[in-house]
Amino acid sequence: MLDAADDLLVERGFSGVTMEGIAVRAGVAKQTIYRWWKSKVDILLDTLVDDAEQPLAWRPGSSPAAPEEELTDQLGRVAAFLQEPAGQVLLSLIGHAQLDPETAAKLRDGFLREQRERDLAGLGALLARHTGRPVDERLTGRLLDAALGPIFHQALVLGRPADPATLATTARLVLDAAGREPVPGAGRSSDAE
Amino acid sequence: MLDAADDLLVERGFSGVTMEGIAVRAGVAKQTIYRWWKSKVDILLDTLVDDAEQPLAWRPGSSPAAPEEELTDQLGRVAAFLQEPAGQVLLSLIGHAQLDPETAAKLRDGFLREQRERDLAGLGALLARHTGRPVDERLTGRLLDAALGPIFHQALVLGRPADPATLATTARLVLDAAGREPVPGAGRSSDAE
Amino acid sequence: MLDAADDLLVERGFSGVTMEGIAVRAGVAKQTIYRWWKSKVDILLDTLVDDAEQPLAWRPGSSPAAPEEELTDQLGRVAAFLQEPAGQVLLSLIGHAQLDPETAAKLRDGFLREQRERDLAGLGALLARHTGRPVDERLTGRLLDAALGPIFHQALVLGRPADPATLATTARLVLDAAGREPVPGAGRSSDAE
Amino acid sequence: MLDAADDLLVERGFSGVTMEGIAVRAGVAKQTIYRWWKSKVDILLDTLVDDAEQPLAWRPGSSPAAPEEELTDQLGRVAAFLQEPAGQVLLSLIGHAQLDPETAAKLRDGFLREQRERDLAGLGALLARHTGRPVDERLTGRLLDAALGPIFHQALVLGRPADPATLATTARLVLDAAGREPVPGAGRSSDAE
DNA sequence: TTATAACCGAGACGGTACGTCGCGTCTTAGT
DNA sequence: ACTAAGACGCGACGTACCGTCTCGGTTATAA
């Protein structure tokens, strides 16, 4: 059933994914689908969990590598992921989340929250290695936005893959900012990260 | 008709905007709507053009003002805009663009392209004032992504308004990067901006 | 305009005759049509008056001719008329009269009433010549129904042209009945003719 | 659903019978109607089969009764039927058959063909009892037209119930013609009955 | 070994919205 | 003054999916 949904999304786009269509393609009764999922969104969320976690994982710091190259690589993997079918599922769900609060809640409380935790851990470790000291989590959060923001901006708003130059610029920006930041978290109170 | 569509979007969300509903609320025949717009997306695109240009305009450089404050203010206006009804229209359309290529094409070839041109001009001018020399347009493009990316990332992916700390961090990042960049556009060839 | 309506009826059938279509075909604005006719039915009624009277006229008794042959000829003309375009207009209007009381009223108070008067006069004269004495008008009415009934029955109900044998049988029946009828109109009171 | 259609026809006439209206009145979804019938004409055809067969049946010859009275009674039942709601359905469908060939085909290949067979059998038996010998079927057909023609002519063309005098005249005409017809079917070749 | 229940495919059902057609009325330019 | 052109409010069309709801017909134990 997950496969049927996935295939339909690739072949016919999000609006081509219908409970009716999935049922026919999977050779299954609609009722059977409703027994397991409340809506097509829930189905796609399940495919996302299956297909997205691994490609978005932070590689375990091939230790002596330059942090900048490491970060650029990771951003490159994110950008590449968004071009694949599983990435299209994510973009579709983020898209649909703009139109439907329930989708938004499920997506953000589920996959996106977990992925952000993984990203915070990955980026935090990388920055610590880079600066030689632990990094404030709120700062890491802001730098994560600075790192992922351009990629998602290009994908969601401009509708094109992030180009390598942007990725490199972004990585350098983030690392510079992390190095320059004086005392971790000192005195900053308006941070809502 | 545009108002009716706008109101429905605010009251009932994107899926609550139906041709049928607009017609009833505007006291108009469906056919009349179809005579002027091909779909509800086109209607919303028109409301966008009406309502989004002015709030997103770059203020004409209150001359001696610090560029960092100026940029932070502009980013704040963008973030604030996304919280307003007109901003919800934009976010909805960007969301729908993920689900429907035709929407994507219209949105990007229309409003988004024009807005990006205004943004490039605005940011370019600001950077030139900041650095004291003209700035390469491709660099400006990348820095624009760096500036807007976090805001849209927070809005679209995390579903929350961008916090002031993020805006300030982002503005500083962008200006630092512009100042550091040695020779405008020198030697870079993989730039697809 | 009458021609346009006529043509459309022949080419596309009654439901293919639309005010919109007549206007386009006649190169005329709808409003102009409404200035002269209230509906497409009225237009067709006008074409009927133009095209039906002459073909349905009773030939002026080629005197010594056998009445039976004369009557058969007249019935043949009626049957043939119903096969022609003008006859199709009549059948269509009679058909539509079953569905719409207003059409029924206009058709019966107009063309059909006048045609029935011509038929009564024609048949009455023929019967008088045949029997050698004047014929009661109510009897003539009943015999007119007996004469036309089978033709319209075949056309409207069975959907086929009346065959010559039926016409001959019918003509003989009618003349026999007229000859046998003892005293014109004597004693009959329930006649509503 | 059939009842809803029937009621609407009586209350609002043929053009007041709409799929939309039937659905609302029957408390049913439009799609459900379309699942079972292609058009409102098919629905009315079904009501016809339910409601018309019995009232139009030939009574089984209360044996010694005078054939003339028997035939007059039968014609009276036909005339009375056309005044009832079920008869209005028949007249409407015959009317619509003049406007739409598909309706014509369905009506004539279905109900009308079957009813004609029943009529031929009924009239044939009556004539055989009257004349004392079997009657040629083609002759029976012509006499059936002679019998029913005036009734339908009055209903469809003149728009009024057939009066008793006409029915009596018609019955006598038909029986006289049957008695006089010398040798069943002898020599007649142009008969297309 | 049989019964009995859980589960399934199939698809009918009441709905909502779709995008289209023709209606009859109206407004607007152009001659 | 009258026209063609066509926009307008309207009501119905026939279609696509929605999510809910019976239906029989398997399996797959439990008696």
TrEMBL record, chains A, B, C, D:
UniProt keyword annotations, A-Z: DNA-binding, Transcription, Transcription regulation
Name of the featured protein: TetR/AcrR family transcriptional regulator
Gene Ontology terms for molecular function: DNA-binding transcription factor activity; transcription cis-regulatory region binding
Source organism per UniProt: Nonomuraea montanisoli
Lipid biosynthesis listed as a keyword: no
DNA-binding residue intervals: 18-37
Pfam families: TetR_C_11 (PF16859), TetR_N (PF00440)
HTH tetR-type domain boundaries: 1-55
SUPFAM superfamilies: Homeodomain-like, Tetracyclin repressor-like, C-terminal domain
Matching PANTHER family: HTH-TYPE TRANSCRIPTIONAL REGULATOR BETI, HTH-TYPE TRANSCRIPTIONAL REGULATOR RUTR
Transcription found in the keyword field: yes
